[in-house]
Amino acid sequence: MSTPPLSSPPALDPAPAMATVHSPQPSRRPTWRLLLSHPAHMLSLGFGSGLPRQAPGTFGTLAGWLLFVWLDQWLGTGAWFALIGASFLLGAWAAQVTGRRLGGDSGHIVIDEIVAFWLVLLLLPADAGPITQAIAFLLFRLFDIAKPPPIGWLDARIDNGLGVMLDDLVAAFYTLLVIAIALRVAG
Length: 187
Hints:
It is a single chain. With 187 residues, the chain is mainly α. Helix content is 63%, strand content 0%. Helix 4 (77-102) packs antiparallel against helix 5 (111-123) and helix 7 (151-157) packs antiparallel against helix 8. The relative contact order is 0.15.
């Protein structure tokens, strides 16, 4: 009795190229090692703020808030818009690269929360204090988590780094809209 010849298994690429960020496979949890392995991972994972096991989007938004307060000492409105625009473009690239590595649109990718919340904070009324900012934080997280239309549609249909970034911009818009209506009604 003879045994069939052994053939080598097909070569598997550890990071297959894919056109989209979403994947049917479950997303892996990122580590500090991954974070430090590529600038895209550092950026998309919010310099570590997206690494917590629970509520990484909330931690990313908090990191964005703290960064805003710190950077606002030196940046004027024009510089903020330039930083937000550049961060949006770099964030889309970084989210795409990290999404490929993690096997999908991982909740640990938080550059989208950071950039979108910067926009919220920048567009709040100039006299907005910590209480208004905290309300904006809660509203933004609510819209980002609940994904009312068209946020959920964008999240499901635009399967790349741009889609990751866009749905949070809509959550930022909803946040600003609710605050503007509340301020108008109140006074």
